[in-house]
Structures are given as C-alpha cells and as structure tokens.
Amino acid sequence: MKLAEETPGSGDLRIAWRRAVTETKAVLQKADAAWSRHGCPASGECCQLSVTKRQPFLWPSEWKLLEEQLKRSRRPMPAPRPDGACPFLDAQGKRCTVYESRPFGCRTFFCHRITGPAKVPSEDTNTLLDRLAALNLAVDAEAAPRAMLEWCADAEP
Fold first, then answer.
1. Count of domains in the chain?
2. Are the C-beta atoms of 21 and 110 separated by less than 8 Å?
C-alpha cells in the first residue's frame, strides 16, 4: 500500500507526514514514560507472531518511522522469517533490530511475564493511542492501523 505522500506533486502532504512522524516520536516517548515502572524480560516471546497469533497494528506514521530507521542504517526491509516471528528480530529471534523506532504496540504489548506494578497505565495508554490516531487522521482521513506483517508484505524491498 502506497502512502499518499508518494504521489507526484504532493509536497504539502509530504510535509504533513513529516510532522506526523515527528509527533509520533513524541507519542512513543510518552508511552515509554507511562510504562517506565514496568519491565520486560526481553525474551522475544511476544515477537513470535505465529506462536502468539497476535501482532502489533501500526498507523502509517509508525510505519514511516520504521522505514526511516532502515534507511538511516542502510538496511533493506527484512524478509519474512521462516518461523513466522516478527521480521525485525535479529537472526537469533531475541532482539529487536529497530528497537528505537519500535511501534506503540511493541512498547505496551507485554507478555504474561511483565514485571512492575499490578496496575497498568491504561488511561495514559488510551490517551496516547487516541493522539496517535488523531495525528494520522489529520493527514489522511482514511488512514487506519494495519497489521505489522501486512505493512511488511506491501513494502518495497
């Protein structure tokens, strides 16, 4: 799926998406802060998408952020993994190769082994999700989150 900014003559749209990506970074930082009292065992279990049967859904601005990180590091879009895990995992399937730009769902989508307070910051999380939706919809009224593997399948190598 091509994003609207890729259409010739859409300079204003390109600027709008650039702003949305910048705002997305701020939302992701706030998500990290909201969940800072919770910990993850860093096992990569939640990234085993074919095992969990769940995957994060990304708004277009989150996907663009991932693409930007790959471009900065001069890495191609990763191929699907034979084990069905997130394609952004390292070869051992334990570490995220795009950790600094990982999507909202990967920052707040913990496995059953989460550590920290029993109460999760659901109000903060919902407020941030609403903000993420609003900033994408402000650029494209038809924007919607899509499953990670759908974005990957449609990405150009």
1. 1
2. no
Alpha-helical (H) ranges within 9-157 are 11-34, 49-52, 60-72, 104-108, 122-139, 148-154
Q: Is the dihedral of CA 44, 50, 54, 59 positive or negative?
A: positive
Among 21, 23, 49, 26, residue whose Cα is nearest residue 106:
49
pTM of the model: 0.87
Which structural domain, as residue segments, surrounds residue 97? 11-154
Residue 27 included in any domain: yes
Residue 127 lies in a domain: yes
Note the pLDDT tens digit of each residue in 32-79: 999 888 888 778 888 999 998 999 999 999 999 999 999 999 999 999
Q: Is residue 5 part of a domain?
A: no
